[in-house]
Each structure stands twice: as structure tokens, then as C-alpha cells.
Specification:
Elements: H1 2-5, E1 10-12, E2 15-18, H2 26-39, E3 45-54, E4 59-67, E5 72-77, E6 80-85, H3 96-103, E7 107-112, H4 119-127, E8 129-137, H5 140-152, E9 159-163, H6 166-174, E10 190-193, H7 203-208, E11 215-223, H8 227-240, E12 245-257, E13 260-269
Parallel strand pairs: 2-3, 7-8, 7-10, 8-9, 10-11
Antiparallel strand pairs: 1-2, 3-4, 5-6, 11-13, 12-13
């Protein structure tokens, strides 16, 4: 059966993205695309995934296969609505429960790094006790969609965008400078770090923006047996920053293939 040979596909509201096995012929692809749309009337576009996510901007490559010719998704989750281009900005529907869980925990001032088109930032702003959410992203195209999504969800009063490289932004905040014409607190109560797969941990910037009591949600990627190696990395970075920390939780936040997992380490800054 064709369905048994094809990996699970991702649905982004009106768009489904399918990863086909190598050498799948065009007729089979078209037939499977038609079946998806026949089974789910809300899906009006089928795209084929042709490349992996790559780079700090986490862009992927897809090509149109069937239905409406568009790469702009309209997606809903956790009482929020999002628009974004699936090739130009990273967005994972599989992290919906992660976003909901963190929204149920945070309060005070919250910083979201690597915010993309705003999934974590907007879900948190809409569903948490946070006073204000600060959303940082370096991808200019993603920032355009984030601004649109803030408006779609009526969150201009609660969500401030901090566009640009977090290394530069953190340095500005540390010096008490305005960022994007807005006043930003020097320290945050919670910092959310849904990092892409990069060598740089960006923990240095998280510690610069932390104070006693700050809780950080740090995401990384590793083999299942390497989770505690990530914990040791965090502890070493804390030591470099002259910070004491307490590990609160180690959670597997999804599988990403080849026996690798996304891990979330929650820790609290003690000084």
C-alpha cells in the first residue's frame, strides 16, 4: 500500500507537506496528494518536502504538488491564528503541546528567543499570566509574519518584538538601551529558548538577561543517551557566567529521526 510506504506528513492548516520515499514516481505522488485532500477538506494545498531545514534561519525547501498554488499557511492552535510562509520561516505544529505547557507555567516578563513567526510568543501572550512577552528573531521574513500574527491575535498591548541577532540585542539590553524603539527590562522572569540545531548554545546571552529566580526553558538536540551531556554543557556555561543554577526538569520533547530527540532542560538561576 502506498500509504504504508510514505512517512507521516505535517499539516499546517490549509497546507500538508509530504516527505516521499526516494524514487517515488510522480503518478503515485499525485494520487496520494489527491487522497489527502479528499479525506480532509480543510487541506487545499499539498507540497512535497525536497530539502531539510538548514541554517540559523531554519528554512526548508518544498515544491508544489497539488491544489492551490501557495506556500502561505493559515494555521490555528491553542486559541491562536497564524500566517506564515512554510519555506521562509520555521514552524512546527508538533510543538503545540510544548507551547501550551510553557504558557501554563510562565508569568511576569517573558523573553522568547528564536521566535520565528511567533508561535511560542503568541501562544504564551494569549494563554498565560505573563505581564509582557518579548519576542526575538533574526529572520526578517519571519518578523514580518510575526508582526502580522500579533495583529491577528490582538496582542499589540502585550507583545513586543525585539528584531535582530540576540547577541546584539542582549548587549543593548544590558546597557539599558532602547530596542526597536521600545523600553525593555534588563532581566526576565522566564526565558524560552526553542533553539534550532546550531553549535552555539546562546546560553551566554540567556545568563546575561537572567537574575535570581529566572527560569530558562532550553531546547537542544541529541541522542537519547546524551541528555545528561546537555545538562553538563549548561552547567559549564553557567560556571563561565558565574551563575549558580538548579536543574528543574529534563524532558524529551519529541523525536527528530535517526534516533535523535529534541530535549528540553528547565533550570532556575539561583544568583
Amino acid at each position: 500500500m502506498i500509504a504504508e510506504r510514505i512517512r507521516a506528513y505535517d499539516v499546517f492548516g490549509n497546507i500538508a507537506i509530504v516527505k516521499f520515499p526516494a524514487k517515488t514516481n510522480a503518478a503515485i505522488k499525485k494520487r496520494f496528494a489527491g487522497k489527502i485532500m479528499a479525506d480532509n477538506r480543510a487541506i487545499t494545498t499539498i507540497l512535497e518536502k525536497t530539502g531539510k531545514f538548514h541554517g540559523r534561519l531554519r528554512k526548508q525547501e518544498t515544491k508544489w504538488l497539488a491544489g492551490v498554488k501557495t506556500k502561505e499557511a493559515l494555521y490555528k492552535e491553542n486559541g491562536c491564528v497564524f500566517r506564515f510562509n512554510v519555506d521562509k520561516t520555521y514552524f512546527s505544529p508538533r510543538l503545540s503541546n510544548e507551547r501550551k505547557e510553557i504558557a501554563g507555567i510562565v508569568k511576569g516578563n517573558v523573553l522568547v528567543m528564536f521566535a520565528g513567526a511567533g508561535p511560542y510568543s503568541i501562544v504564551i501572550a494569549k494563554n498565560s499570566k505573563a505581564e509582557k512577552v518579548y519576542s526575538n528573531e533574526v529572520n526578517r521574513e519571519a518578523n514580518k509574519y510575526a508582526l502580522l500574527n500579533i495583529g491577528l491575535n490582538n496582542l499589540k498591548y502585550k507583545l513586543l518584538m525585539l528584531n535582530g541577532d540576540i547577541k546584539i540585542i542582549a548587549n543593548k539590553i544590558k546597557k539599558g538601551l532602547m530596542v526597536n524603539d521600545g523600553a525593555v527590562p534588563k532581566y526576565f522572569n522566564y526565558i524560552v529558548m526553542p533553539r534550532p540545531q546550531l553549535k552555539d548554545s546562546f546560553l551566554k546571552q540567556a545568563f546575561v538577561l537572567s537574575k535570581k529566580g529566572t527560569i530558562v526553558f532550553y531546547y537542544d538536540f541529541c541522542m537519547e543517551t546524551e541528555k545528561y551531556g546537555i545538562v553538563e554543557k549548561i552547567k559549564k556555561e553557567a560556571e563561565k557566567a558565574k551563575k549558580k543554577i538548579k536543574i528543574l526538569k529534563i524532558k524529551t520533547a519529541g523525536e527528530i529521526g535517526n534516533r535523535r530527540i529534541r530535549v528540553r532542560i528547565d533550570f532556575k538561576v539561583l544568583n
